[in-house]
Design brief:
By secondary structure, the chain is mainly α. The protein is 71% helix and 0% strand.
Length: 191
């Protein structure tokens, strides 16, 4: 005998309620009881769908954080800079308050970690595409490991968000993009 069918409208309300609470309270201020209350649902509705707060938030981030644009500017440097603009916009949002707690919880929840990795791979696709275009144009000869390149670009954004919360100025993003571009086009990388 099959169980009850999933209620898509209830799940949407729970995800939207979680997003709203993340925006106003950050991860550390979020409770599953508050999510249920905000969604006008029962706590059991939340627990039936998500094994933990981290798993719920991973789904919410995958739903609500807009994907990075796949911009073809005609040059790797400009494509990297456009990708950074989207990353910086995402990290400047209120949902990132308390992100350290979320990342710590994800490490102890394999289901949430899997969801976060899938979201990361999906959000990195424009970067993978930019590198492939650069190879076709002859700007670079080797394709770097996508996750390493993503870490080089996003690492400074995450670091600043965790430690100071200050936004990056456009000139700072220019330096990050130029540094990654220099590394990718360096002859040391090719040897």
């Amino acid at each position: 005998m099959a169980g009850r069918p999933r209620d898509a409208e209830l799940e949407r309300r729970l995800i939207d309620a979680t997003w709203s609470l993340l925006q106003s309270r950050g991860y550390t201020g979020l409770t599953l009881s508050d999510v249920a209350g905000e969604a006008k649902a029962h706590r059991t509705d939340v627990y039936r769908r998500w094994s933990s707060k981290a798993a719920l938030v991973a789904d919410v981030l995958a739903t609500h954080i807009p994907p990075a644009r796949d911009v073809d500017t005609g040059s790797l440097l400009s494509d990297l800079r456009a990708f950074l603009d989207d990353l910086a916009a995402a990290w400047a949002q209120p949902w990132a308050n308390g992100i350290a707690g979320f990342l710590a919880d994800v490490r102890s929840d394999p289901h949430a970690e899997e969801k976060l990795r899938a979201m990361s791979v999906n959000r990195s696709q424009p970067l993978v595409n930019a590198v492939a275009r650069a190879v076709r144009r002859g700007e670079i000869s080797q394709v770097p490991e996508p996750s390493l390149l993503g870490n080089l670009l996003e690492g400074p954004l995450v670091h600043r968000r965790l430690f100071t919360g200050e936004p990056f100025a456009p000139e700072d993003l220019d330096v990050i993009a130029a540094s990654a571009h220099l590394l990718l086009t360096s002859s040391a990388v090719r040897s």
